[in-house]
TrEMBL record:
Chief location of this protein within or outside the cell: membrane
Top-level taxonomic group: Bacteria
Places the protein is found: Cell membrane
Matches recorded under Gene3D superfamilies: MFS general substrate transporter like domains
GO cellular component, one term: plasma membrane
Protein name: UMF1 family MFS transporter
An example molecular function term from Gene Ontology annotations: transmembrane transporter activity
Keywords: Membrane, Transmembrane, Transmembrane helix, Transport
Length: 431
């Protein structure tokens, strides 16, 4: 496969179609997992769960199992999509499965007997959307050039944030607040269950353009494609060869795993801290989520230009330093106003770090192996995904304070910053 087959200039329509998948995926990431259905599952459905183990603990275990499966299967899934020439098919199938899992959440009533259905569906959905993301990220170089890859990646991230903004506002005004516009009953958690249906439709609609507009890549001949077990052998061989030939790529995968876990910790525990430490109400947390998405999107769009000019490493380092400064200040201030100021300042750097991490790997990936590389990206990220939650819990326990849990997240971000400093800047093979 020649580089030109993958790196030919894409049309604006193809770039827009690719970015709309990010816009649609906010339905699962922002609404289902983070701000709406995840809290509903732990606070309402599992509120009176017997047995002494909280619903939040069960959710953590469910997502932990999902993370293990992702770590084991994601790189081989991406590798086989590359070899078979069906990245787009893989994206469509796993997106469809995510949508089906989201639809299934409609069955989860406000009763602890339904908690297990919700846990299984959330775990399954998190697996499916991660697999879809492997193929989606691998398509980045199909819709960009070495000269605009940072801006295209940032465009996709920003659309994801803006999609979350619009969808969270619709959910809040239409279904969640006391005098909701659509007047859906709250009995049995019906308003939250309808939100799940709405989110599923949202994702399905906005995932369609990329499947029609962006062309498929060519695979290798069928007789040269590895079987599932052979794919694992090839994976370990490729990791060994990758370390021997370009160990900085391996070092980047490790560093990004650390700081991406810190970013995940910011999202996972931000709402908890807002309510328990800084005096936010449930409604004000949702509004803060909208504002945070706006700021993160603007940060991603702005940083995309710096990514193309100075390289992704500079953007990542500056972003991590900015988050460490904001997080440290939040350790010592109190009140909702301080959280609004420094919480949003922290969010300003989240989008740039996420977007430039993706472009960093895209620039490093050998042509035709993007799916496999982003599979490794997913695997390494999941391999340390326990760090931020575990350290948050540890410091909260040691100091009997949720505020102290912030130290755990900051330590993970600091470790990621220190790990990426010695990593060589990527040089795109086509430049």
């Amino acid at each position: 496969m020649s580089p030109d087959e993958i790196r030919s200039p894409a049309t604006r329509g193809q770039v827009a179609a690719w970015g709309l998948w990010d816009w649609g995926s906010a339905a699962f990431n922002a609404v289902i997992l983070t701000f709406v259905f995840g809290p509903y599952l732990t606070k309402a459905v599992g509120d009176d769960l017997p047995g002494g183990i909280s619903a939040s603990t069960w959710l953590g275990w469910a997502l932990g199992i999902a993370g293990f499966l992702i770590a084991v299967l994601a790189p081989v899934t991406g590798q086989r999509a590359d070899a078979g020439g069906h990245r787009k098919l893989s994206l469509g199938v796993f997106t469809g499965l995510t949508v089906l899992a989201t639809v299934g959440l409609f069955a989860v009533k406000d009763d602890y007997h339904y908690l297990w259905i919700g846990l299984v569906l959330l775990g399954a959905g998190s697996i499916f959307i991660e697999f879809a993301g492997v193929s989606y990220n691998a398509m980045l170089r199909q819709v960009s050039t070495p000269h605009n890859i940072g801006r295209v990646s940032a465009f996709g991230w920003s659309l994801g944030y803006f999609g979350g903004i619009v969808l969270l506002l619709v959910c809040y005004v239409g279904f969640i607040k006391d005098d909701a516009l659509f007047g859906v009953s709250t009995d049995g958690g019906l308003n939250f269950r309808v939100v799940a249906l709405f989110a599923a439709v949202w994702f399905a609609v906005f995932a369609l353009p990329v499947l029609f507009k962006v062309p498929e890549v060519k695979g290798i001949p069928a007789d040269r494609r590895p079987s599932f077990l052979q794919a694992y052998r090839k994976l370990f061989r490729d990791i060994r060869d990758l370390y021997r030939s370009d160990r900085h790529t391996v070092f980047f995968l490790g560093a990004s795993a650390l700081f991406r876990d810190g970013l995940a910790g910011v999202f996972t525990f931000g709402a908890v801290l807002a309510v328990n430490v800084y005096g936010f109400t449930a409604a004000s947390v949702l509004i803060f989520g909208v504002a945070a998405n706006v700021v993160s999107a603007l940060g991603a769009l702005t940083a995309g230009r710096f990514d193309d000019r100075t390289g992704p490493k500079t953007v990542i380092v500056v972003s991590l330093v900015g988050m460490l400064v904001a997080g440290t200040v939040l350790l010592f201030v109190s009140g909702s106003m301080m959280f609004w100021i420094f919480g949003l300042f922290l969010c300003l750097f989240v989008g740039p770090a996420q977007s430039s991490s993706r472009t960093f790997l895209a620039r490093l990936s050998p042509v035709g192996q993007e799916g496999q590389m982003f599979g490794l990206y997913a695997t390494t990220g999941r391999a340390v995904s326990f760090l931020a939650p575990a350290l948050f819990g540890l410091f909260s326990f040691l100091f009997s304070s949720d505020r102290a849990g912030t130290i755990g997240i900051l330590l993970v971000l600091l470790a990621g910053l220190l790990a990426i400093l010695p990593v060589r800047r990527p040089v795109d093979t086509a430049t």
